[in-house]
Design a protein that fits this description.
Nuclear Transport Factor 2, Chain: A; transmembrane; five-stranded antiparallel beta sheet; 25-stranded mixed beta sheet; about 725 residues; 33 strands; globular; copper ion binding; Beta-galactosidase, Chain A, domain 5; 3 domains; mainly beta
């Protein structure tokens, strides 16, 4: 052994210790701070033209409530405390003016349309209970109201169609606890281990089988974190159609595959030993397998940039929506909005097999989650507060319910490396502007994105997460899903989401054109004895609404676009193409008595003439009376001419979800993302992203490490500071 080796090793170790000490000490010092600061924005009124689309301010909401309470001549109870037999204000939202008036104001220098609100009222305290919708205005100081119910729906809205208020669910919960469960004391105590608070109920919908019904299955779960995947096998059918809570009754009870007249009959059968009892292991309070608590130590990493013009807001029923979308100063679309989110379940339990959730009725925009920095959106995103008035007399502030950020998507928008002839690299980072909200409707969490790309494309995307609803596993349950725990059946369901896309390509009047391909046989000109199969372009103008209504599973032309009356530099009609991403399951059979209420889901794409009297593809009243739908989208399609008209595209996208063991504790967004793209198709003379400041280009003869040649080379210097992170806050509970 070399005698000097130990000394060499000691010296080397000392040097390493010194370096590590310096590194540790340097971490304690304050790093230089970046100049850019995050922006916090509260969404309020604006003096710009976009005010015509702006959500109601808290002050406007309060004025509407004050006006209605003083001018309707009937008592109005706060919806958070209302009985079914009371009158109350269910919601107040902005009433967007007719498009023609808005365009005269935005484009023609016309007068600003009067600002108005739409108020939905439940009138239970009168001889003819009903739901009435009033337009109230002008804001901010209203002096008039007009009933628009008949104008919108062709008649009065019967009271049984009203969306269920949160207070009604509380009243049903109290009914179960105080009057229903006590009639089966032995069963509830010994089988359910019920202590008055250990069970949670989840509603099914729709509520019955025909118009007028308000009879609902309530599925019972262990009341633990993530209860949606902890069924106990007990379900109760409650008839809550009477406006007198004292007259509510139990119509049926279901337990472990068997039906009973009521809880008394179930108790008798249990005491006599005539039922098959399946004891469910009691879950800990955190839910055990359904817990969202991290199973490993956390690690932090953070992502970071396109000027665009659009107005945005949150509808109380349908959520995120955009208006007056422009690129390079020219309007591309007048409105892009969510319309509905539908889920149709299968099960061998009554609550599961009868469930068809229409989330707009529950309020997609009523339940935006406060967004968590660094998880729901990038930490340094701009967070926007919104306001709503629903189920109460006072407005509520939704803290950080929207976020806006630029995102590096981690791939090039376009690039090329040339090693033939000339040597060069050219590329552009794919940075996009994202507007996001996340809403929680029961067990489902929906991540709603509108994404703006540098090439002029716009994407509407929804990612589904949350908990997979479940049934108690019994009998032939595996025909309807996968077993995910001892007594838990992850039940099969379809998810369908409908969007309204009012494109105005090069102006209001557009036509719908389909391009596709077909193979043709031809002889090779250079060798006539040989044949070549070559693809050719096929073209067709879709003249009528019937031609433009593409059934869900039917073949649709791969290029469908709104064509302008103007042409680009190369002689082609300027257009925007509609491209969908969908893995939708089968649609409910049209023979179903409730199918017309969700008839928008028949079509992957339907293009109709735009009409003010057809503002939405569905109605919040369809959930509780799907057998006589207040709005039936199928009626929109009546073979009208759609050439050179103001057109609307109704896009349906979705996926089939068969829950599996990896959906425990809850469902991930990966693979559960669907939506659509609006892509420029000969709209520009070339790709507009070529003008982006983020482009990179260098040749073999240039110094690609020089900042003036390649800005990316400067990143190590510009990124050597720490961003000024705001403190973490959360106002979700």
């Amino acid at each position: 052994m070399n005698p000097r080796l130990p000394y060499v090793l000691l010296v080397g170790a000392a040097v390493i210790i010194f370096i590590l000490s310096c590194m540790l000490l340097s971490r304690g010092r304050q790093s230089p701070s970046c100049e850019s600061q995050p922006h916090i924005l509260e969404k309020t009124g604006s003096t710009s033209q976009s005010l015509v689309f702006a959500d109601l301010t808290p002050e406007e909401m309060a004025q509407v409530v004050r006006y209605l309470r003083g001018n309707l001549g009937v008592p109005l109870v706060d919806a958070s405390r209302a009985k079914p037999s009371d009158n109350c204000i269910a919601s107040v939202d902005v009433q967007v003016p007719p498009k023609a008036e808005v365009l005269r104001f935005l484009d023609g220098g016309g007068a600003r349309p009067p600002r108005e609100a739409l108020a939905v009222l439940y009138f239970g305290n009168q001889p003819d209970p009903n739901v009435t919708e009033y337009v109230v205005g002008p804001l901010p100081t209203p002096v008039y109201h007009r009933d628009v119910t008949v104008q919108k729906y062709g008649g009065k809205v019967p009271y049984h169609r009203r969306p269920t208020l949160a207070v009604e669910y509380k009243q049903i919960g109290a009914f179960l606890k105080s009057q229903v469960f006590p009639t089966a004391p032995s069963f509830m105590r010994q089988v359910m281990e019920y202590d008055g608070a250990s069970l949670a109920a989840l509603t099914a919908a729709p509520r019955g089988f025909q118009s007028g019904d308000r009879i609902t299955w309530f599925v019972l779960f262990q009341n633990v974190s993530g209860f949606f995947v902890h069924p106990v096998g007990l379900e109760v059918l409650v008839d809550h159609s009477s406006l007198d809570i004292a007259r509510w009754a139990v119509s049926r009870v279901f337990y472990n595959g068997q039906y009973y007249r009521d809880m008394v009959q179930l108790e008798t059968a249990y005491v006599q030993g005539r039922i098959s009892v399946e004891k469910v292991r009691k879950a800990p309070r955190d839910g055990d397998f359904s817990s969202m608590k991290p199973r490993a130590p956390s690690a932090a990493l953070f992502p970071l940039q396109d000027g665009r013009s659009f107005a945005f807001g949150m509808s109380v029923n349908t959520g995120l929506r955009l208006f007056d979308i422009r690129h390079k100063g020219e309007r591309v679309a007048y409105e892009i909005s969510i319309q509905e989110a539908l889920s149709v379940y299968g099960s061998n339990c009554p609550g599961g097999m009868s469930t068809r959730y229409m989330d707009g009725s529950f309020g997609i925009g009523r339940s935006p989650s406060p967004l968590v920095r660094g998880v729901d959106c990038p930490y340094l995103a701009t967070y926007v507060d919104t306001h709503s008035l629903s189920e109460t007399l006072s407005r509520s502030k939704r803290k950080a319910s929207l976020c806006i950020f630029e995102q590096n998507l981690g791939s090039p928008l376009r690039r090329h490396y040339s090693n033939l002839q000339s040597l060069y690299y050219g590329g552009l980072v794919n940075s996009a502007l994202v507007v996001r909200s996340i809403t929680t409707v029961g067990n489902h969490d929906y991540v709603w994105d509108f994404i703006f790309y540098q090439n002029g494309a716009i994407e509407g995307k929804v990612q589904a997460t949350g908990y997979a609803s479940s049934s108690f596993l019994h009998g032939d349950g595996l025909r309807y899903g996968n077993r995910v725990r001892e007594h838990t059946l992850g039940t099969i369901r379809t998810h369908s989401v409908n969007y309204k896309v009012d494109l105005d390509v090069g102006g209001v009047k557009n036509s719908l054109v389909a391009h596709d391909m077909a193979f043709e046989m031809t002889r090779a000109p250079w060798s006539p004895e040989q044949q070549i199969e070559r693809p050719r372009l096929t073209k067709k103008v879709l003249d009528t609404e019937d031609q433009a209504a593409f059934r869900l599973q039917s073949k649709m032309p791969r290029y469908v676009y709104f064509a302008a009356n103007s042409k680009n530099k190369w002689g082609h009609q300027r257009g925007y193409r509609i491209q969908t991403t969908s893995f939708a399951g089968e649609h409910v059979p049209e023979a179903s008595s409730m199918e017309r209420a969700i008839s928008w889901a028949r079509y992957q794409l339907a293009v109709t003439r735009r009409k003010e009297e057809e503002p939405t593809s569905t109605s919040i009243y369809n959930q509780n009376d799907p057998w006589t739908p207040t709005v039936a989208f199928a009626d929109f399609i009546n073979n009208e001419t759609i050439t050179n008209e103001d057109l609307v595209a109704w896009i349906t996208t979705g996926f089939l979800h068969i829950p599996h063991s990896e959906d425990i504790p809850n469902t991930v967004t990966v693979g559960n993302s669907v939506g659509f793209l609006l892509r420029p198709y000969n709209y520009y003379d070339l790709d507009p992203s070529i003008y982006s400041h983020d482009g990179v280009f260098f040749t073999s003869e240039q110094d690609f490490t020089a900042c003036e040649i390649n800005p990316i080379a400067c990143l190590p210097k510009t990124a050597s500071c720490l961003p000024n992170f705001p403190p973490f806050t959360y106002d979700g509970f």
